[in-house]
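Lecture 7 notes. Example A: sequence first, then its structure tokens.
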Amino acid sequence: MIPLSMRLLTTALVACLASLGLSCSDSSETAATVDASGEDAGAEADAAEDALELDAETGSEVGLPDASVPAVAPLKLADYPDGGGKYLLMTISVNGSPPIDVLLDTGSNGLRVFAEALEGTEVEVGTEALDVEFGNGEKLAGHIATSSVSFGDIATPEPIAYHLVESFECASWNPNCEFADGSGALLTDAGIHGILGVSTRAGQPASVYSPFAQLDPELRAGYVVHTGGWDANVGEVRFGVSDDDMAGFATIDLLPGGSFPSGEPAWADDRVEACFVVNGKDVEPPCTEMVFDTGSSADVIYAPNLPPAEVDYGALAPGVTFEASAAGAFETNFKVGSPQTASLDLVFVDTTMPFAILGIGAFLRNDVWIDQAGGKIGFKLL
């Protein structure tokens, strides 16, 4: 049985999957400043005065660091309460709000913050509606809002657009979905109060895209995700890294993917070609496009012709060997254990869509460099 949290994050939170739907109402330039509960909150807060110290562990002072030194945002490596694997949390603040833990998700783009985490905080909410529907009919519904955002010692230099999630709903075709009670407990019980989508792709809609791509120039050029590995409970994202810091990384060139509203290039990080081998034999087809996705706690491959003995309830069976490689820069291999362990050796087998996901396991085995300016992704074994 696939734990629900894994099903949602594996099959729904990657924007490249065809089942993911976005619908927006007509936009308007007229916006009201309200708090997240929907009541009038008065004048817009000053972003600089509202900056919040989030790095309690290091005691660092808030403010932009010296550009010659990499800036660091702390991560927490957590386990889903239902045994659904591992996930990464980053603590953010929105317009000076109390700390909010959000899922760090390299497989989606744009920040989504649950309104309950912003009660009492002034945010500027526009009239443009935004709904995100998951593959099983679970839906996040709300509006596009605009606020300053900070994480660690780092803050966006200007307010950015994001998805203020005001309700958890079910699509009409599945009224009994996991959000049927309207609580969103599936995510909030895991301590997730938003999704920080940092894909290099352009946003949908265009205004809602990676906050990391909206930092000051010396920081938004690229960053390294360092999890510390399977046994760690803390990690970090390092911004402003130098060429010397990149020594030892093997890189993959990303295909161009249009541009952000700023005019800077976006990159199709969901079109990396990866090849897969199961029990010493190439799958059919041997290679597909894929995405490296921290928001997925399992891997997914397209392999419609595997022998039945190699598949166990929709995943690679215990004892099966698995290899994945991409452009000579990324390689992983392991033998599936018994039982399979999410985020370690759990590989779902899809027979319908020629696409693959390499989830958080790739980030637990490697430091991963995202070159936003140059359109590359790089790997260095931990």
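Example B, a different protein, same format:
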Amino acid sequence: MGSKESEKSYEVTIQDQNDAQIRSVVLQVFRNWSSRNPDANDPLYLADDRTVLFDVTPMKDVGWDHQKRRLHGVFREFEKFDMEPTGDLEIHHLGDVGWATMTWKSKILLKNGSMMSREGRGTFVLKGAFEMACGPRPHFRSLTTMT
């Protein structure tokens, strides 16, 4: 009898930790983008040249290295870039796969002094081991990025 209750409590604890870990990774991705340094997201993106990534422009990149090289050029035009989720971040998981959906907004100050703002939606798919033995941060890989 006590065993069932403690199992349920353990599941809830793991669920809460998984949600917190996924939320932490998603927020780190946004902080990294705001730094205008695509290399900062290297540990978080799947380094596979066949992975399809969706972005604002162009709509589709194939391979993290390709997207990263393109973004280095884009970010050279930015004086400042702030990007953040708008507060509707939802987290889901099934087994060792988690995904997060959100809308986001950004403010861009171009080097020529022009200001731009954008809004969009994003889906991150994260795969990693959720075992407690992994430590505070499982090894997630974002398979899909913002569109």
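Note on Example B: The first helix runs from residue 2 to 34. Residues 2-134 form a domain with the Nuclear Transport Factor 2; Chain: A, fold (CATH 3.10.450.50).
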